[in-house]
Design goal:
297 residues; alpha/beta; Glutaredoxin; 7-stranded mixed sheet; 10 helices; binds zinc ion
């Protein structure tokens, strides 16, 4: 049975999630304990309304991470006042981004600064609902980054640069169920028709600077391709090998028996041959990567 409890910042109220009685537990104000791990929420500039929103959204977002296991260290979620403060805290320009994840910290631009769909401002109830959905979805994504960095990382540095873009963003996007946000496989395939030299997984890091939506869509569906072929245990095995100090390609090979380039080639063929389309007569073609060469052990 899932059970979580929250200490509301500033008021010290213990809220039980479900199930039987849990005795008093000494945790700092703003601390949220979930089955996945512990989170600490703090604000650069106190915001009562956003604090309430986060204390509801964090446990909800954390549930999506349960498929990958548990955090090994608490994650601090720090809300900064605006986008300029976020860029200053990260130390780089972050166009179009509202958050930044590290192994034990997520920096979050105050959600009240985020853009809303046009015409929504007149309906406070709808605004509150949309904000809740936005924040929960983004936290699923960012907290997945923290989790993967913890699983793969060799402290104190984050292994962000050691995990390729498609795996790093793909795992976060799949966990946050962002399939409706990014181009579907057919759009990727049509784009590839005009770019025969590009491999969406191999070239993702460069592609994100020129065709961001295609790069993210490729990462999302590429990572999902990996899961459908090898299961949820596959990325965890890769991260576990990275934890021993192996580089990503070697960890991938050790965990799955194939080089990442082989998966990238299979995914490329899967898209270009429209392997995602329903097969009218041959059921075997409906499986991802039909005709592909690499297989999980
Ligand atoms: Zn991300």
């Amino acid at each position: 049975m899932s059970r979580w409890w929250v200490v509301l910042a500033g008021v010290g109220v213990l809220v039980m999630g479900s199930g039987g009685c849990v005795g008093p537990r000494a945790v700092p104000a703003g601390t949220i304990v979930t089955p996945v791990g512990t989170f600490v929420v703090d604000f650069e500039v106190w915001d009562e309304q956003m604090s309430g929103l986060l204390l509801e959204a964090v446990p909800e977002a954390a549930r999506a991470l349960e498929r990958w296991g548990h955090l090994e260290e608490p994650v601090r979620i720090t809300v900064v006042w605006n986008h300029a403060a976020l860029e200053e805290a990260v130390g780089r320009r972050l166009p179009g981004m509202s958050a930044w994840a590290r192994r034990t910290q997520v920096l979050l631009e105050n959600p009240r600064r985020w853009p809303l769909p046009p015409g929504l401002e007149q309906d406070p109830t709808l605004v509150a609902h949309v904000r809740r959905v936005q924040v929960t979805s983004l936290l699923r994504h960012e907290l997945t980054h923290s989790l993967m960095f913890q699983l793969a990382g060799v402290p104190p540095s984050d292994p962000e640069g050691r995990i390729p873009f498609w795996f790093r963003e793909g795992m976060a996007m799949v966990t946050a169920n962002e399939f409706s946000h990014w181009p579907p496989p057919l759009t990727l395939a049509q784009w590839l028709d005009f770019h025969p030299e590009v491999n969406l997984l191999r070239d993702a890091a460069a592609l994100v600077r020129t065709d961001g939506a295609i790069a993210y869509g490729g990462a999302l569906h590429g990572f999902n391709f990996l899961l459908r072929r090898c299961g949820d245990a596959a990325p965890l095995r890769v991260l576990a090998h990275m934890r021993t100090g192996q580089r990503f390609p070697d960890a991938f090979q050790a965990a799955l028996g194939v080089r990442p380039e082989a998966l990238a080639s299979d995914f490329d063929r899967f898209l270009r041959w429209r392997g995602f389309a329903p097969a009218p007569t041959a059921p075997a073609r409906a499986s991802p990567g039909g005709g592909a060469s690499s297989r999980c052990p």
